[in-house]
Write a structure and sequence with these properties.
Layout (H helix, E strand, L loop, with lengths): L1 H26 L1 H18 L36 H37 L1 H16 L2 H12 L3 H27 L3 H8 L4 H9 L4 H24 L11 H8 L8 H28 L1 H7 L1
Helix pairs in contact: 1-2, 2-3, 2-11, 3-4, 3-6, 3-9, 3-11, 4-6, 5-6, 6-9, 7-8, 9-10, 9-11, 10-11
């Protein structure tokens, strides 16, 4: 009898798993679609040779500025390099830098905001005034100034944008921690003698992850636009790096005779930003309490 019940339980669990996947696909198709597209972009950034194996820096003047065709799907640039290949390989630089900037900013800002919010009092006031100093400057203007002072290059872009990006995470996390620290389980942990770092990590921070994930996902698109913008004005990636903003800067001279050169990298920036924005919106929708209750 017990064996029969156990078998029935395993069968029910096996049946429930696909039904949950079907439910997610049915009620949140945008989450599934945007997640798959984001995964494809991450694969392109990690292993671009899987999607485009041709070299990105060779010269072939015989096919320079050729229009899109069967042999060159998105055409070629002024040096005869395949634009599709360069866009795919450029994902590693454009999207990779954006991911790095957002992750660095999220880690620094989260730690800073958690300490400020949990400590409270004069320390919180002092730390938030530092944040206000950064937020008082126009963000992109400050990033340009930092990148120009640090010297042209991708490392300068990462430093400049991380400096302007972390205060937003610090302010968001600080506000959430201020509310969470008043909960009963936090007071109980204090009463039991749990060390403060453990209280923050185990009893407060898990409740910030849902909003933090949404913020990170949406910010990837914004960071991508900032990275490519700095490269476009000459402060980011340098030739012959196949970075999307740099490709647009190089292709703008040929926009009337070879429209595909600057247009397709711009489309790549636009579509990537849309994908991560849609993914962030879908995650925010899934995180809403009323949605969780409806799914239950």
């Amino acid at each position: 009898m017990a064996t029969t019940l156990a078998s029935a339980g395993r069968a029910a669990a096996t049946t429930a798993r696909p039904s949950r996947a079907v439910a997610i696909l049915r009620y949140q198709p945008m989450l599934v679609l945007s997640a798959l597209l984001a995964l494809l972009l991450l694969v392109a950034a990690a292993v671009p040779d899987l999607l485009a194996g041709q070299p990105t820096d060779g010269l072939n003047m015989a096919v320079a500025l050729n229009a899109p065709s069967g042999s060159h799907l998105l055409g070629t640039d002024e040096a005869g390099r395949d634009i599709y290949t360069r866009i795919v390989h450029g994902t590693r630089y454009s999207l990779g830098l954006a991911l790095g900037i957002v992750l660095i900013s999220a880690v620094v800002g989260t730690a800073y905001g958690a300490i400020a919010g949990f400590a409270g009092g004069w320390l919180d006031e002092l730390m938030m005034r530092v944040v206000d100093i950064f937020l008082a400057f126009p963000a992109f203007v400050l990033a340009m100034a930092i990148a120009a002072a640090a010297g042209r290059g991708m490392r300068s872009v990462v430093v400049a944008l991380a400096i302007i990006w972390w205060p937003g995470y610090a302010r968001m996390i600080r506000g959430m921690v201020l509310g969470l620290r008043e909960n009963e389980w936090v007071s109980a942990a204090h009463a039991l003698g749990v060390p403060t770092p453990r209280v923050i990590l185990r009893h407060i921070m898990p409740f910030t992850l849902a909003e933090l994930n949404v913020r990170i996902t949406v910010d990837i698109g914004y960071a991508l636009v900032a990275v490519t913008s700095l490269s476009f004005i000459g402060l980011g990636a340098q030739r012959p790096t196949p970075e999307w903003g740099l490709m647009i800067a190089d292709g703008r001279r040929y926009v009337t005779g070879a429209w595909w050169y600057p247009i397709f990298p711009g489309i790549a920036i636009y579509l990537t930003t849309v994908v991560f924005s849609l993914l962030g919106d879908a995650l925010a929708e899934r995180a809403r309490p009323e949605k969780r209750g409806a799914r239950a």
